[in-house]
Structure formats: structure tokens, C-alpha cells
Amino acid sequence: MENNFRATGVPPGLEYLTQLDQILIHQKVELLEAITSFETKNRYVIKNSLGQEIYTAKEDSDCCTRNCCGPNRMFEMKIKDHSGQEVMHLVKPFRCTSCFWPCCLQEMEVQSPPSTTIGYVVQNWHPFKPKLSILGAAKETLLTIEGPFCACSCCGDVDFEVMGKDSDQPIGRISKQWSGLIKEAFTDSDNFGIQFPMDLDVKMKAVLMGACILIDFMFFESSGDGDQRCSVFG
């Protein structure tokens, strides 16, 4: 999976994404969290469609923030390649998700390489549906994401459609994949698939990875009372 070329305009470490139209993101099960419900740092493995690991991601946050603020918490996340080199950096401030607080909705900054912003994921206010915008480095809208009224994975996948800026037709999809009854009931460890056009700008592929992780926190991460959100209402 190593490349001997550097595609023009592609951040270092993301060259392999030029060859992909699908990414799988698996959250690692933390034993302490599964047994005690004590919130630990989220960790993810990012794979290609063949199941080969291409990146790993680890949350950087403190214990108090994780267990007091739940999925609304602020955090940073390092995404590293197989050599341990950080290729992406995610920054999420403390934000609300409820439709009743439209002035303080969720957002995430995506950097690649670290300290160089390539885009943002911003939640858009909507009274019923999860909606997000994918912004470029200059905060111009490039893509939008729309989820279902109820983002509850009861025995099935939950799809968030990725739309072009000026199109009503999906060009991709972020899917929260059903993990099985036991795993869904007793952990908040989730599996996601991301589909996008092969020729999509690599930076936007990277920002969609950030959007997937933000969606996980917004709708599939257990809150302080042990429950998960399933809509913009909570």
C-alpha cells in the first residue's frame, strides 16, 4: 500500500486515498468501558475495502471532560499511518447537538498535515433531520450530508447521504453498520463505511473521514446517563 509518488496538491500521507472510493472505520472496543461504562478515549482503525489497515486514530482528551461532558466534549484526535507518522489532526470544540440550541451546534476542524487546515465539518440547524456541511479551508460549502429522522441502528444500517453542493442526488454515503445485538446493546463501539467518488478531491475524502467520526460522537456515542442519541432532539 505504499506509494512512490506524491500527487499534486495532496497532503503528505494521504496519497493512498487517491486510489480509494470506500473506507471502513472501526471503533476499538475498550474493555474498561464495556464493563464499567467509564468513558475512555475513543480509538479507531481505518481500513480499505479489503480490510487492510491504512490509518489509526486516537482521541486526546482528559478524563473529566469525557465523563462529564459526554459526546458533546471537546477533543483533538491524531490520525497516523502505519509508520506512526501523524497525517491528519482533528479538532472538535465543546458544542451542543440539540435542535433547541441552533447557535452552538457541532463542528470539527480537519488538518492535514497537522496545523494546516484543509476543511471543516459543520452541523446545520434543522428541526427534524441531522444535516451537516463539508466546508473547504476558506469555509466555502463543498458538500452536504443528510441523515434520517431517527438515527437508531435497530437491526440495520443507518445511512447518511453525501450530496454535491448543487445536486439533489447522492454522490456518496456514510453508513453506520449494524454490529450485532450484543455489541450494540453493551458497547458504543461502532463500525462505519464511507463511500465517495474515486475522483473526489483527496482533501474532501479526508474531511469526510472527520465527518464520520463527528457523526459517531453526535449520534452513536453514549451520553453520561448511558443512553445514545437517535435524533437532533436527543
UniProtKB/TrEMBL annotation:
Pfam families attached to this UniProt entry: Scramblase
Swiss-Prot/TrEMBL cofactor(s): Ca(2+)
Sorted UniProt keywords: Calcium, Lipoprotein, Palmitate
UniProt KW Ribosomal protein keyword: no
Record-level GO cellular component terms: plasma membrane
One function term, GO molecular function aspect: phospholipid scramblase activity
Highest taxon of the lineage: Eukaryota
Biological function: May mediate accelerated ATP-independent bidirectional transbilayer migration of phospholipids upon binding calcium ions that results in a loss of phospholipid asymmetry in the plasma membrane.
Protein's recorded name: Phospholipid scramblase
Organism encoding this protein: Salvelinus namaycush
Lineage: Eukaryota, Metazoa, Chordata, Craniata, Vertebrata
